[in-house]
Each structure stands twice: as structure tokens, then as C-alpha cells.
């Protein structure tokens, strides 16, 4: 990812929070020299050795599933909040732009089978059920025969994280007056994630 130095995000807490909050990611691999991508939830975990991992699953019919066995490089893209910024909000002439937060994660996948697969799937389900369901369901409640049929149709995997690139493009290159003006305009806009970007900019005000 192209990141000018003043937009580079180095704060691990910020990076971790974005990955967890915007876990519905774009996973990109390469099949026969051609990029292939899927949009799937990914879970961030730390193993007993301290390494950081991403876990997820795709349909067995998904072209990416075959690439997991090949141990090829994968890129997971986590797109955070974003908002349009109008040049009319500055105290000087300039061009329009877009403020955003994003994280790119690189690593090689390995396939999860048996209990490791089931544990990873159950953990992900539990997290989202607790967040979104009034009466959270559990994987252990499923009929064993039906569950096994579903499990046979997917491939679970983990990616050991080798490299992370993160950007928080939040008007850091603007003067204080223009910076505050951008915040003020985003606060009253309903477009995209304007209010969330305004909050992020408020947190970073000098």
C-alpha cells in the first residue's frame, strides 16, 4: 500500500482495533498469475508463542481454497471508516480528497483440520453472535450430522502474519484552521463514515 510518511499508522493498538472492528475483510491471493479475492470475516488471534494470526474459512469451491494448500502469499485488506473531503473546507485552494483508515496484512496460509478447525469456527461464531444476536446461538447446538455436512463444504485456514501496512489518512498535512474546518463539516455530514472520521481527527488534534 502506498503510504506517505505522515499518514503511516504505527500504533499497534489502533491497528488491532481496526482489524477487530472491521473484520469483514477482502482476502487476495494469486491463482495462475491472476489475482483472486473473496470478501470474508477474519479473526485476529495470538498463539501461545506470541505470533499473530488471522483465521477464516471459505467455500471448498472457492478458487482461493486450492491456493491455501500451495502456501502462496495472501493479502488481507481491512477497510476502516472513510469520508470525502471537499476543497471548499480549506482556507486555501486545493483539490478534493478522501480521508480513511486501512490495514493490509500479509502472510502465508495453512489449512486447519479437525478440532483446530472446529475451535476456530466456534470462536468466530461466538464473537459475532454475542455482538449481534439477542439470543446467541452456539455451534454446539447444531445437529451433528447437519453440521458435518456444512463443515465438509468449507476449508478453514490460518495465516501467520508476516508484515502489516497501515494508514490513517486524516488531514495531518493541513494547517490547524483547515483541519478543524474539515472536522466541523464532517460532523454534520451523513455521507459515508463522516462522523466517525471526524471523531478520529478529534482524537489526534495537536
How many DSSP helices? 6
What is the CATH top level name?
Mainly Beta
- Going by CATH, the homologous superfamily would be Electron Transport, Fmn-binding Protein, Chain A
N-to-C terminal Cα separation, in Å? 26 Å
| Structure class | alpha+beta
Task: Encode the helix/strand succession as letters.
Answer: HEEEEHEEHHEHH
Poorly predicted regions are none
Helix proportion of residues, in percent?
25-40%
Global shape: elongated
Residue share in β-strands? 25-35%
Radius of gyration: 20 Å
What does it look like?
The chain is of the alpha+beta class. Helices cover 33% and strands 35% of the residues. The protein has a single domain, classed as Pnp Oxidase, Chain A. Strands 2-1-5-6-7-4-3 form a seven-stranded antiparallel β-sheet. Strand 3 and strand 4 form a beta hairpin. It is elongated and about 65 Å long.
Characteristics:
206 residues, Pnp Oxidase, Chain A, seven-stranded antiparallel beta sheet, alpha+beta
Amino acid at each position: 500500500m502506498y503510504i506517505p510518511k505522515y499518514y503511516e499508522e504505527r500504533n499497534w493498538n489502533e491497528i488491532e482495533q481496526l482489524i477487530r472492528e472491521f473484520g469483514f475483510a477482502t482476502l487476495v491471493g494469486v491463482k495462475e498469475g491472476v489475482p483472486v479475492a473473496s470478501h470474508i470475516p477474519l479473526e485476529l488471534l495470538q498463539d501461545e508463542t506470541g505470533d499473530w494470526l488471522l483465521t477464516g474459512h471459505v467455500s471448498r469451491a472457492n478458487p482461493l481454497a486450492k491456493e491455501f494448500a500451495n502456501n502462496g502469499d495472501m493479502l488481507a485488506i481491512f477497510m476502516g471508516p472513510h469520508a470525502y473531503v471537499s476543497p471548499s473546507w480549506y482556507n486555501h485552494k486545493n483539490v478534493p480528497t478522501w480521508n480513511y483508515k486501512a490495514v493490509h496484512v500479509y502472510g502465508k496460509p495453512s489449512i486447519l483440520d479437525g478440532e483446530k478447525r472446529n475451535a476456530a469456527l466456534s470462536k468466530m461464531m461466538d464473537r459475532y453472535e454475542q455482538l449481534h444476536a439477542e439470543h446467541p446461538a452456539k455451534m454446539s447446538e447444531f445437529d451433528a450430522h447437519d453440521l458435518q455436512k456444512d463443515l465438509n463444504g468449507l476449508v478453514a485456514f490460518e495465516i501467520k502474519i508476516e508484515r502489516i501496512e497501515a494508514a490513517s489518512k486524516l488531514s495531518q498535512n493541513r494547517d490547524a484552521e483547515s483541519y478543524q474546518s474539515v472536522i466541523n463539516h464532517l460532523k454534520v455530514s451523513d455521507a459515508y463514515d463522516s462522523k466517525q472520521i471526524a471523531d478520529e481527527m478529534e482524537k489526534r488534534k495537536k
